[in-house]
Amino acid sequence: MKRSVRGCYQSEGYVFAKNAGEIGKQHGLERVARLASNENPDPPSDKALELGFAALSNANRYPDERQVSLNDALMAAHGNYHFVTGVGMDGVIETTIRTLVEPGELIVVSTPTFSFYRLSAIAQGAGVAEVPRGSGFSVEPAPFIEACEEAKLAFLCTPNNPTGNGTPPEVIREILEHIDCVLFLDNAYVEFSELDYLPLLRDYDNLIIGRTFSKAYSLAGLRVGYAFVPEWFRPYYVRAATPHTLNAVSAAAAVGALSDVKHVKTARERVIKWRKELSGRLEYPVLPSDANFVMVDVSPLTSDEAVEGLARMGVLVRSCRSFRGLKDHYVRVSIGADWENTMCIDAFSRLNP
Question: Could you please report the per-residue DSSP string of 255-267?
Answer without folding.
Answer: HHHHT-HHHHHHH
